[in-house]
Design a protein that fits this description.
The protein has 242 residues and is mostly helical. It contains 16 helices and no strands. It is globular, with a radius of gyration of 19 Å.
C-alpha cells in the first residue's frame, strides 16, 4: 500500500483500507494533507496546552515525569512536548521509561520537538527504538530518522532485521533519505535486503522503493543480484533501477 496512505491512516487512527480511494492521488498531495491534518490536531486547544506546559515548570522534573506517565498519558505529553522549554523537556524525558517514551513517540509530531529529540541521551533513544522494533512500529521509527544525528540513526536502524529495515525505509517521512540511511550501514546490508525481499512477497513494495532511491554506484551493486529474484519481482526491480 502507498506509504503516505499508511501514515495518513496513523494520523487519523483508521484502518488504511478505508483510505484506498486515495491510491491514485499524487503521494506529495497525500503527504501535504497528512501534514495539514497533523498541524490541525496539534494546534487544537493550543492555549490550554501552553498553560499546561508553563505550569509544568513549577514542579521538579521527577514529579513532572511521574505525572506525565500516570496522569497525562502519551497523547497529551506528545501535544505538550513541542511547547516546553528544551532543557526542561530533555530533563523530563530522561526520567521517563522507554516504553512510555515509545508510546509518546507514536503520537508525536517530531517536527515540533526536534530540539528536544536531538538532546536526549543516545542510550535512551536506542532503548526507545528497541521498544518500537518490538512493537513493529515501523511508521514511528521512519518518522524520526530525519530528526536524529547520523550516529544515533546508525545505532537505531542497526537493531532492525532486513524486513524491519525495509519496512522502515518505506515509510520515511523524507524518501530522499533512504540512500543516506542505508549508507550508514555496512556494505553487505543492501544485498541482504534484496535477498530478504526475494523470499517474502510482502516486502516487494518496500524493496522496490529502496531500489528506486539508490545512487548509480549502489545500483551497480544490486544488478548482479537480480537473477536471484522471482520473475515478476525481477522485472519490476529492473524497471526501478533504470
Amino acid at each position: 500500500m502507498n506509504p503516505e496512505i499508511l501514515k495518513l491512516a496513523r494520523v487519523l487512527d483508521v484502518d488504511p483500507a478505508r483510505l484506498n480511494y486515495l491510491a491514485d492521488v499524487d503521494q506529495g498531495e497525500v503527504r501535504l494533507l497528512r501534514e495539514q491534518m497533523t498541524t490541525t490536531l496539534f494546534d487544537a486547544n493550543l492555549v490550554v496546552l501552553e498553560r499546561m506546559a508553563l505550569a509544568s515548570k513549577l514542579l521538579p522534573a521527577g514529579v513532572t515525569a511521574k505525572i506525565a506517565e500516570k496522569v497525562f498519558g502519551p497523547l497529551l505529553c506528545a501535544r505538550i512536548a513541542g511547547l516546553v522549554d528544551v532543557s526542561r523537556g530533555v530533563d523530563v524525558a530522561k526520567r521517563l521509561s522507554p516504553k512510555f517514551l515509545a508510546s509518546v513517540a507514536a503520537e508525536l509530531d517530531p517536527r515540533r520537538a526536534t530540539s528536544i529529540i536531538t538532546r536526549i541521551p543516545v542510550t535512551t533513544v536506542v532503548a526507545v527504538a528497541e521498544e518500537l522494533t518490538r512493537r513493529e512500529d515501523w511508521i514511528t521509527l521512519g518518522r524520526f530518522v530525519g530528526h536524529l544525528p547520523d550516529d544515533t540513526v546508525r545505532r537505531c536502524v542497526g537493531l532492525l532485521d532486513d524486513a524491519g529495515l525495509l519496512r522502515t525505509a518505506y515509510v520515511l517521512d523524507d524518501p530522499t533519505r533512504i540512500y543516506h540511511m542505508l549508507s550508514l550501514l555496512g556494505e553487505d546490508r543492501l544485498p541482504s535486503l534484496v535477498r530478504a525481499a526475494a523470499a517474502d512477497e510482502s516486502l516487494w513494495a518496500p524493496a522496490l522503493d529502496v531500489l528506486a532511491h539508490l545512487n548509480e554506484t549502489r545500483r551497480a551493486t544490486v544488478r548482479p543480484l537480480l537473477g536471484e529474484l522471482p520473475e515478476e519481482l525481477r522485472a519490476r526491480a529492473e524497471a526501478a533501477l533504470d
